[in-house]
Amino acid sequence: MNPLELTLGIMTAVGGFVDISELVFAAKAGSTFGYALIWAFVLGTIGMSVFGEMSGRVAAIAKQPVFNLMRHRLGLKLGLVTLMGSLISTLITCAAEVGGMALILNYLTGWPYPLLALLSVIALIASMWILPFKWIERTYGLLGLMMIVFAVALVAIHPPWAKLAGGIAPQVPPGLSTKELLNYSYFIVAILSAVMFPYESYFYSSGGIEEGWGAKDLLTNRVTCTVGFGLGSLLAIAILASSAQLFGPINVSPEIPGTSALEAATPFGKAGLLLALLGMLFAVAGAAVETCMSNAYAVSQFFGWEWGRHAKPSEAPRFTVAWIAVMLLALLIVLTGVDVMSLVEYAVLFSIIVLPLTYLPLMLLANDKSYMREHANRWLAKALGWLFFVVVTAAAVAAIPLYLLTSGGGG
Amino acid sequence: MSALANIKIVSQLLDLPIIDKDERSCGIVDDIELSGAAGKELRVSALLVGPGAYEGRMPRWLYWLTRKIAGDRMARVPADQIVEIGSVVKLKSRGETLGLHKVEDKVRAWIPRKGAL
What is the pTM of this model? Predict the structure, then answer.
């Protein structure tokens, strides 16, 4: 294991962990419920680490990405249902990321939102065309590290650490009305969905294949999924905690992503604001690339096309057409004028419904000794896998009723 | 070979990715052609690849929709081309010689070859 590669891998995972949905829900959760929802981020991150590690291990040992093996496990019909669900939820997520980029650029430049969405998509397509996989992943992941300003800003505003630590334990805040309790439950579901988006495991496992992972990379996989994802999640928790400290007491509800950037501006002024906005921009841009490529990976793997960006675009032609088409469709959705926050709501809603269908075949594959040999799931991975499968299934069942009852967390 | 063993082979093969001798993806085992008759030995004679092989594997309305979108082309890969069956099916020839890269090559003609690192 090359220590430089490992460090870069971890840093990329940290910078690439946060996306527009986490930004929005972390800030809203903090302002609405104080520190009480930190545990939902912790729970979601453990779940993401468990399934991320499994998908990376399957890629390294079976040398096949999730969607190839999923179709073999689920069969054509159920596989198609999963594929369609994943494509729709990930396309909406991609549109939310593109819209988020345009919004952040709008704060920075004041230029019209539709023009910035178009320029964002042109820049994203150009970067994906020019750069090979490793550099696409690293460029956005490392630039997203500017988000660390949120963690530093949290330390600078001296939050009540004991109260903050108390948020790690699962809890229901006392004295909530029925309406508030439903809202709190909706936030739990939304946070779990935002942290465990299905595209993350498709992208991660396909990335493992792109980089030619084998048994020697299992430790890198494990460290990236635990340390990298864990540290990445701390950034989201820092946004939540700063929001609880700064916005909660004055009843400010951060309805747009730009409000979160004020958390860094409070202790560090203009420099903090700029760093926060740039960090958010690159983190969201990275997520736009990941969602776009995930859809192209999914459809290419399901139908057995040539795929991957380790090779030149002309060497995987249908894959290339697929990712360009996904990006253009995402732009089209944004240009219809649909609100970014609505896209974020739809993205988390669709994704949580698809999650159980994504994770069950993955878990069965990782359990299967005929594919995984001595690297098949052991008792801890099995137990955690089934535990989180139950959690995401319960969240998937509760998602639509909670969305309707709370008008999407609006109360 | 027993009928049960044959069924096991079919379920093992169906929906597996196919790669050729150069490790290039060549599609998925969309259906399997069996030869034999009642009371006689049943053999896998070919792998069928392409949307044309979906007929019978999905509801009629969905197959109609798939045909409208993706056409009904289908390539037949003789069973003697199979080298190994694992998490993928490995072939002993190149995909082109078996007609498995037709669409990929057609689309490739439209993709610019400049600018990418």
Answer: 0.93
| Residue B56 contacts A, CB cutoff 8 Å | no
Contacts of A119 (CB under 8 A, 6+ apart): A105
Half-sphere exposure of A126 toward its Cβ, with a 13 Å CA cutoff? 6
The three-class DSSP label of residue A253 is coil
d(CA A28, CA B41): 66
Name residue, tokens 């939304």: A190
Burial class (CB in 10 A: 0-12, 13-18, 19+), A172: exposed
Q: Which of A271, A407, A14 is nearest to A22 (CA)?
A: A14
| B117:A135 CB<8 A | yes
Nearest residue of A to residue B107, measured between CA atoms:
A317
ipTM of the complex: 0.91
Q: Which CATH superfamily is domain A3-406 in?
A: Amino acid/polyamine transporter I (1.20.1740.10)
Contact A127, A348 (CB under 8 A): no
Is residue B24 within 8 angstroms of chain A, CB to CB? yes
Chain A: give the shortest CA distance to residue B94, in Å. Answer: 14
Q: Report mean pLDDT in 10-residue bins for chain B, 117 residues.
A: 63 90 92 85 89 89 89 92 90 92 90 81
Asked if B84 is an interface residue toward chain A (Cβ–Cβ < 8 A), one would say no
Question: Is 2.30.30.240 the CATH classification of the domain at B3-108?
Answer: yes
